[in-house]
Amino acid sequence: MAELAWADVEIDIPFYDVDTYRVVWHGNYPKYFEVSRCKLLEQLGIPYSTLETLGFFYPVVAMEVKYLKPLHFTQRIVVRASLREYRNKLDIRYIIRDYQSQEVITKGHTDQVAVSPEGDIQYEAPEQVVQLVEQALASL
Questions:
Q1: Which of 15, 17, 19, 85 is placed for a possible disulfide with 91 were both Cys, Cβ 3.0 to 4.6 Å?
Q2: pLDDT digits (tens, 9 = 90+) for 54-78
Q3: Which residues are catalytic, by number?
Q4: CATH class, 5-138 region
C-alpha cells in the first residue's frame, strides 16, 4: 500500500530512556512512534485536539514493532510516520533510522480506530475526519 503522507522527526536518545548498558528499553519505542504520529496528524489537520473536538478519540488498537538493531544513549534518530489508510482506520507505518548513516534500526505499525466518547467503535472514519484528511492530501 502506498504512503499517502508522511512526517519525520529527529530525536536525540535521552539518558532516561536507556538501561544500564545505555541501550533503549524496548518499551520506549512506541513513545518515539507517538512523537512522529502527532506531527503527521498535525500536518493532516487532525491533531488529537481536533479529533476530540469532532467528538472522537482514536486509540491505538494494534501495534507491531520490529527491533532490527538497538538504539543507544545520545544517538540521533529520524522517526518517520507514514499514513497508509484513513477511511476505516488510521494505518500508520514507522521507520526509525540512524540520523547519520540513514540505516534502518526499527520498523513498526499501528492501527487506530474512531471511538465515540460513549465507547462506540466506528467502523468507518467520521466524514468530518475524511474531509480534513482529503483536504490536506490535496494540498501536498
A1: 85
A2: 999 999 999 999 999 999 999 999 9
A3: 19
A4: alpha beta
